[in-house]
């Protein structure tokens, strides 16, 4: 709770700016996947296409006073 990220995400103005931006990026990805799926359907390629979606991870967005995933035991100064 005392690290800089935790202090920032404790502020409502930070959360109200970051969370909608993050969700907007997720929506943009979703919308673009819809465009691709539509093209695959229209061109008859959906039946012979394998779709694989991967991700590294999501951010905490302030949950548990954290912004990003880090080791709980690593000091803040070593996480740069």
List the helices and strands and how they pair.
Elements: H1 4-9, H2 12-42
Describe the structure.
With 80 residues, this protein is an all-alpha fold. The chain has one domain (4-78). The protein contains two helices and no strands. The protein is elongated.
Give me some keywords for this one.
2 helices; 80 residues; single chain; elongated; mainly alpha
Radius of gyration: 18 Å
User: What is the count of distinct domains?
Assistant: 1
Cα(first) to Cα(last) distance is 18 Å
Q: Encode the helix/strand succession as letters.
A: HH
Number of strands: 0
Mean pLDDT: 82
Low-confidence stretches: none
| Total helical elements | 2
Helix content: 40-55%
Overall geometry:
elongated
Helix/strand structural class: mainly alpha
Strand content: under 5%
The major pleated sheet works out as:
none
Short description:
This protein is mainly alpha-helical.
């Amino acid at each position: 709770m005392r690290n800089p990220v935790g202090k920032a995400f404790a502020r409502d103005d930070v959360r109200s700016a970051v969370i909608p931006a993050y969700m907007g990026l997720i929506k943009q990805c979703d919308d673009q996947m819809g465009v691709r799926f539509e093209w695959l359907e229209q061109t008859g390629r959906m039946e012979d296409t394998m779709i694989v979606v991967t991700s590294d991870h999501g951010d905490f967005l302030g949950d548990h006073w954290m912004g990003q995933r880090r080791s709980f035991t690593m000091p803040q100064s070593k996480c740069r």
